[in-house]
Design goal:
Layout: H1 3-18, E1 25-31, H2 35-47, E2 52-58, H3 60-69, H4 72-76, H5 80-92, E3 95-100, H6 112-133, E4 139-143, H7 147-153, H8 159-173, H9 180-201, E5 205-209, E6 215-220, E7 231-232, E8 239-240, E9 249-251, E10 253-263, E11 268-270, E12 273-283, E13 286-294, H10 296-303, E14 312-317, H11 334-338, E15 343-347, H12 362-367, E16 376-380, E17 387-391, E18 397-402, E19 405-406
Parallel strand pairs: 1-2, 1-3, 3-4
Antiparallel strand pairs: 5-6, 5-17, 6-10, 7-8, 9-14, 10-12, 11-12, 12-13, 14-15, 15-16, 17-18, 18-19
The chain binds zinc ion (ZN).
Length: about 400
């Protein structure tokens, strides 16, 4: 594998993704698949002045064994060590990097009900820390190829060829060329100008139509703004890119306003399993019916995780001709597939998509119509012939997407 190109990728993640500052702590969550690359990233963090870098390795087959053997009571426990770790994140505003390489089917054969119940039991302990951290620290999700993941995408290739092919696709989609940092500056500017255009209209709702059966309207938040690319941390004003790659322009919808049917155009990897060929029907903003050819029970569980799970938390716009979609590959991975297709997310909305969000408290956002939930799960709905029309408060209609691509 081309070491120079990987070094550029490591530098891109640390400087442009996390934007690690002198004296900061960094936590890296990753699998065992690419230790040499994790070492490059760790060194790059120190070169940028990190005070301490902690790598948290995981191995999905072992996670699976834990899930199978531990009791619900044991899985639900929130230990003193975890408590101290969360508190340290709050005190230090630790940067968080997730280098995802997970096998999309890695948790097949585990009891989703037990895992969901354990997550529900742990959430009240984690939530106060999450609230304290929200928007205040730099985080980034990027990917490295795992063997099982690569096998799933390229079953016809040998393991080594599949991993190499996936590396190339990850690097191409992440704009790792001669000068990736400059490429991202240009890219961030382009995304910002799309947001500016959309924000000018203050659309009240978006109407989606596609020949696959999607016929759907979603209400946007009157205080909501579209965002895309880099963001600033609250308080310290550090510019970072939470997703590498990222092609989306997104906003937080108005809770309670969504009507009609959306048909998913890519399978959804959730809790280590794939939900396939599915659709959702909404009434008064809430999912009232789900249908899936595969793992329907898991989809049903997902939308009933808590009170906010059947409501929407994100509307994201991405051209059908996006660089990721044009690879022609289904990645079975949310970071890539969500950036290849217009999508919606069920669950938690984005507080920082509310104009002047700094001046509100955590409790205010729910009153302002931002959905709250323990889940935030993206699912893809973009298609070749999708049209999206924005409707303003005074009834003006603006075509935003035609035939799957930007019309503006
Ligand atoms: Zn998104």
């Amino acid at each position: 594998m081309q070491t120079e190109r990987l070094k550029k990728y490591a530098e891109l993640i640390v400087k442009c993704g996390l934007n690690v500052q002198k004296g900061q702590e960094v936590n890296i969550r990753c699998g065992l698949d690419q230790p040499e690359f994790v070492a490059m990233v760790t060194e790059e963090c120190y070169k940028c002045g990190a005070d301490k870098v902690k790598v948290e390795w995981s191995y999905m087959p072992i996670s699976k064994i834990h899930y199978n053997y531990r009791s619900l009571e044991s899985l639900s426990e929130f230990t003193d060590i975890e408590k101290a770790e969360w508190q340290r994140k709050v005190d230090k505003l630790t940067c968080l990097l997730w280098l995802d390489s997970d096998d999309p089917d890695g948790l097949n054969g585990t009891d989703s009900e037990k895992i969901s119940k354990a997550n529900i039991a742990r959430y009240p302990f984690i939530k106060p820390y999450r609230d304290l951290l929200e928007n205040k620290y730099q985080w980034c999700i990027a990917s490295v190829p795992g063997r099982e993941w690569a096998r799933k995408i390229y079953p016809q290739l040998s393991d080594e060829e599949a991993v190499n092919e996936l590396w190339n696709n990850i690097l191409d989609c992440s704009r790792v060329d001669n000068d990736p940092i400059s490429a991202w500056e240009v890219h961030n500017k382009n995304l910002a100008s799309r947001c500016e255009f959309l924000n000018k209209y203050k659309f009240e709702k978006l109407e989606y139509k596609s020949s696959n059966g999607t016929d759907f309207t979603v209400g946007l938040n009157p205080l909501g703004i579209f965002m895309g690319g880099g963001e600033y941390t609250l308080g310290s004003n550090i510019y970072y890119n939470p997703n590498i790659p990222s092609e989306e322009v997104f906003t937080t919808p108005m809770r309670g306003i969504a009507e009609g049917k959306v048909v998913a155009t890519k399978p959804l990897s959730y809790q280590g399993k794939l939900i396939e060929d599915f659709s959702l029907e909404f009434k008064n903003g809430k999912v009232v019916k789900v249908q899936a050819k595969k793992n329907q029970d898991l989809l049903e569980k997902m939308v009933s995780m808590d009170e906010g799970a059947p409501y929407l938390g994100e509307c994201a716009l991405i051209a059908y001709d996006s660089p990721i979609n044009n690879t022609g590959i289904l990645f079975y991975n949310t970071l890539f597939d969500e950036n290849a297709s217009c999508h919606l997310a069920l669950g938690r909305g984005f507080n920082n998509c509310i104009e002047g969000y700094e001046k509100y408290s955590v409790e205010d956002f729910e009153k302002l119509g931002v959905n709250n939930s323990m889940i935030h799960v993206d699912f893809m709905i973009g298609s070749k012939d999708m049209s999206i029309t924005g409707v303003t408060k005074d009834g003006k209609r603006v075509s935003i997407f035609e035939n799957g691509n930007w019309a503006i």
